[in-house]
Automatic annotation (TrEMBL):
<keyword id="KW-0804">Transcription</keyword>
<keyword id="KW-0238">DNA-binding</keyword>
<dbReference type="GO" id="GO:0005634">
    <property type="term" value="C:nucleus"/>
</dbReference>
<keyword id="KW-0805">Transcription regulation</keyword>
<dbReference type="Pfam" id="PF08447">
    <property type="entry name" value="PAS_3"/>
</dbReference>
<dbReference type="GO" id="GO:0003677">
    <property type="term" value="F:DNA binding"/>
</dbReference>
<dbReference type="InterPro" id="IPR000014">
    <property type="entry name" value="PAS"/>
</dbReference>
<feature type="domain" description="PAS">
    <location>
        <begin position="1"/>
        <end position="63"/>
    </location>
</feature>
<protein>
    <recommendedName>
        <fullName>PAS domain-containing protein</fullName>
    </recommendedName>
</protein>
<dbReference type="InterPro" id="IPR013655">
    <property type="entry name" value="PAS_fold_3"/>
</dbReference>
<dbReference type="InterPro" id="IPR035965">
    <property type="entry name" value="PAS-like_dom_sf"/>
</dbReference>
<keyword id="KW-0539">Nucleus</keyword>
Length: 276
């Protein structure tokens, strides 16, 4: 696996750093503390910045579950490092897994681009080329290049976004224990943001879906691709131990040395059923 790190940016036009895992220092020379609160564009190459703004805008407008774009990031000592960035849009956040690229011809890069919803490359003249897409390529590029930004004059989002939550999972445990959860998990699936820490993700997966989810997570860990999961989330009722709510979830998951990143959305309204 390539040298890599996790980063979280806010959903504003500036994409400010909210979090960076410790491994960002191995990739860029910058410590997380030096970057927190700084605009995400502070490390980008000037020749690529306009293209990255457009891609960022498209990710926010389209609420993309997974997008891949290689770009040049400024190392602390002044040179630029090629980074393969996987962006997961998560309600009002952008969660990214980032990998130092030796070459855009690498197998790992190819696997990421082929398994993401969309992938882009930035050409030497600053133009954008769509290299992979599940939707209509021509109409999507027209939408991307329209420059109809989703922020107001204060750089804040203008439209309500689809609720989503994010989990970081320990990739070094067979139980894929939760080490971080975003606050939206409480509203969406009734899981405590605080008390879920340390729990296995499989405690929250419907019994019939556990083996499939486990297999997909192990594939992501071994191969470095981006996986899309659909399963039912278990939400136990506080009032009756024999009752639970099964909530259909769609999620994407990617992997770094610092952990697995999972971003989830609701597929349909939950249906309360009797636990067998």
């Amino acid at each position: 696996m390539e040298i890599n790190f996790i980063a979280i940016y806010d959903g504003s036009a500036n994409a400010n750093f909210i979090f960076a895992s410790d491994s960002i220092k191995d990739c860029s020379g910058w410590s997380p503390e030096e970057l927190l609160g700084q605009p995400g564009y502070i490390l980008t190459h000037p020749d690529e910045r306009e293209a990255l703004v457009l891609i960022h805008s498209n990710n926010v407008k389209g609420e993309r579950m997974s997008t891949v774009v290689p770009y040049r990031a400024r190392h602390k000592d002044g040179h630029y490092v090629q980074i393969d960035s996987v962006i997961h849009f998560c309600y009002n956040l952008l969660i990214s897994t980032n990998f130092v690229l030796v070459s855009t011809d690498s197998i790992k890069h190819t696997m990421r681009t082929s398994s993401a919803d969309e992938s882009y490359s930035i050409q030497p003249d600053g133009s954008i080329r769509l290299t992979g897409n599940w939707s209509n390529t021509q109409s999507n590029m027209k939408h991307l290049l329209s420059k109809a930004y989703p922020w107001n004059v204060n750089a804040n989002l203008t439209n309500m976004q689809e609720p989503r939550f994010c989990l970081f999972l320990n990739r070094y445990t067979t139980d894929a224990n939760i080490v971080f959860a975003s606050s939206m998990c409480e509203e969406m699936v009734g899981m405590s943001q605080v008390y879920c820490i340390g729990d296995s993700i499989y405690q929250y997966v419907a019994e019939k879906d556990v083996e499939n989810v486990r297999q997909q997570i192990e594939i992501v860990k071994a191969q470095g691709l981006i996986s899309r999961l659909r399963f039912k989330w278990r939400n136990k009722s506080d009032s009756d131990d024999d009752m639970e709510t099964l909530i259909p979830i769609e999620a994407v998951i990617s992997c770094t040395y610092d952990g697995l990143v999972l971003v989830a959305r609701l597929m349909t309204l939950p249906k309360t059923i009797q636990n067998e």
